[in-house]
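Lecture 7, part B: from sequences to assemblies.

Below are the input chains for today's worked example.
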Amino acid sequence: MVDVELKGLLREFDDGSKIGPIDLHVRDGELLTLLGPSGSGKTTTLRMVAGFIEDVGGSLLFDGRNMINVAPRERNIGMVFQSVALFPNMTVFGNISFGPDMAGWLREKTIERVEELADLLGIRHLLLRKISEVSGGEAQRVALARALATNPELLLLDEPLSALDLQLRERLQTEIRRIQRKLKITTIYVTHSQDEAFAISDRVAILDDGLVVQVGTPEELYDSPANEFVARFLGSGNIFLGHIAGVSGGNITVKVEDNLFEIPGIGETDSEITFSVKPEDVLISDSTSNDWATANLVSITPQVGSFKVTIDFNGVQIIALTYDEDLVRRLRTNGEKAIRFSFKSDSIIILRD
Amino acid sequence: MNTRELLRYAILALPFLLLAVFLLYPVFIVTLQGFFTGTPFQEVITTPTIQFTILFTFNQAVLSTFMAVFIGLPGAFLIARLRFRGKSLVKAMMIVPFVLPPIVVVVGFLQMFGPNGVIDSILMWIQGSSTSVFNLATGVPGIILAHTFYNVPLVLLMVSASLERLNPEIEESAEILGARPLQRLHRIALPHIMPSILASAVLTFMFCFMSFPIILAFGQGTYMTIEAQIWNAFRVFDYGQASSLTFIQIIITLSLAYVYIKLGRQETNAGPTASIKTTSFNRYGVIERILILGYLVLIVILVLGPIVTIARASVFDPIAQRYTLEGFVNLFSIGSQGGLRYFINSLFYAGLATIFAVILGIPLAIAMRSRSKTIPTLASAMILLPLGISSITVAYGLVLAVAVPTGLVTNPWPIIVVAQTIIGLPFSARAIEIAMSKIDPALMEQADSLGASRIQRLLFVELPLLAPGILVGGVFAFAMAIGEMSATLFIALPQNYTLAVAIYDYLAVRAFVEAGAAALILVVVCVVAFLVMERISEGSTGGAL
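Predicted structure of the full complex, as structure tokens:
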């Protein structure tokens, strides 16, 4: 389809705030998600790619062609908006055929295309309905069909599922993924939901304060967050801020509040350091026969397939995941507040900044 | 049913009862009378002059409506799409012509477009002429222009509000699907605003159809609406003709009111909207900028001009060609020839009418929000009924069915108050209803859960929350009542004349500065009323339409 490159894409606003410069490469046929909290610039970036934002700096390359001064309707883009934005004065058919009509397709070809897409999305029975007569999930399918009708090279999806309930959202995620794979259409997807991003994407770009902070596959991002923001945003870890108290061999001793942690890594004594440990890499035990540190148990919350255990280590809250039902039962019954913990040694991630 | 519930129903029933006695019954009596007394119905409608009047009423309304929509539409797009400073103020000020009494508009139009008016004076100066060279404030052009002035803001307000409800992402969808600006206008924006265009057109047509003061002033007896002809017939005691015409008019206006209400419910809800996409002026091309500026000049001349020049009308005597304060002096002098009693009458009648409109408006508003199925419909119908029944019909009905039997014809001031109450009631009830709809029901439940009794809840929670709405409703009703001329002229004897009626009287005897001074006072009253409403309701006054 098309290979999209954002090079220093920048929009400055009158109030002095700005989005960008954004550098991002969306490869031909991949689904890349822009993920970030609200206000991080995801939608603005997407709208810059669509061409709805004026005075954009930098360059936007579609297969090497600069599109900055090309009108949205000439960019060969399909887009699904957050509000779905179906035309209320037309039928489902009228909505899907709008693009082909504008492009001056022959009637037979248009009808054929609309029916093909309707079959692909399972909405053929809706074609003659008014927009007010379709449900939320159906409206999303119609919007997707409408965006795909003229065979665009690039598909932009702006939080298309945010208004739907969880079950429907998950079903449509799978469906979008299936259709995107089938058509091999280059796709940029915007969401603020990490679950959604991880479920649907080939790669995810994390945005913070108008800048891309990290791009990678879901696994890469989860396993090695580049900085504290990413680690916190993805919820992938206990984050500790401290400074290096000592260096020995391949290990450093980090002082967090008044506690010492020995972790693998290199660094200079007295320099500040941030590191994270994923909850599943925090080991807990009620046995006293090891040399683990002792902390106080705060709470145990059951989750799907595991328990979330919160412990307090001299004022530092640490979250651990455990699958050990026996341990949890013992912790709950014996009323003992003391608990021992340790980090899996190879699991500590030292974060930049 | 216990006593408390009975009392509740009694309070709710009061406005219905009063409207039945003072509106439905009189209108029924006068329309019925056309078939039994005086000139028979068939003879009335076959008279050539009457046929001309009916035809003219239609034609001028069609032309005025077309003009108002044609001029208002570009403005609606500008209001919705152009980003400029003071936009909310401009939008808010659009309501001013609506509360401005028509007879005041007549004075403004004479001053702007009439002989020795502002435009005429400029043209005379350019041409070096000592006699008047330009007069648009007369005959059919005057009627059409004044109606256009009145209704352009209406079209502007209603259509721009609808445009602002169009989700910008819908237009962007069309854009990215390949639609060019004209295609988007044709296929997306126009279908969306069509109901609001139709609704504003129907409303405009209705107002023009029932037009009275402007017709009297500019029609010069040749061009009459049905409304004006009813008054004429009544003055020569031809009740048969007056009633027949009332019957014809009411059938048409009530049908239009029905269409208007139906249209109002048609607006499609485009779902949650992102912020409206606006463009600042210097983003437009040169030709577009020239067009925008040209349009603004047109609006300033047509809409702002007549209002502003009323100030000149109050001090410039076109006959003597000089500036004078005599208008104000005469207006505030006491005695049988003095104008002060007009002012006192105006305040007294409008004040009473406002009090009644608010007292009746509260139960009507409560009834509109009742959970029952029939009561809200009935209440809405009662509120909208005066919209479809012309002021002259109301006045004619009141005089014939109430004043004559009770002997009030010799000093009919209570009838004037009743008429002004009926005319102000839709506005007060609507404003109060809007305020009610904004109260969070959880607050009421909170009061209940804290142990408040019904009376305590009403006194300490509901009424204080409603106070701004009641005030807005009252001010709106007051503005409508004090500017009311048609019904008041119809009912009043000379000792009952109000400022609005006096303006007509002054114009008739060519006492232009007195008319101007009185008009300026009414303008000030209406502008102050508007400012008060604006301050209290924070820009939502337009909703009362």
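Note for the exam: Residues 48-81 of chain B form the longest helix (34 residues). Keep this in mind when comparing with the next example.
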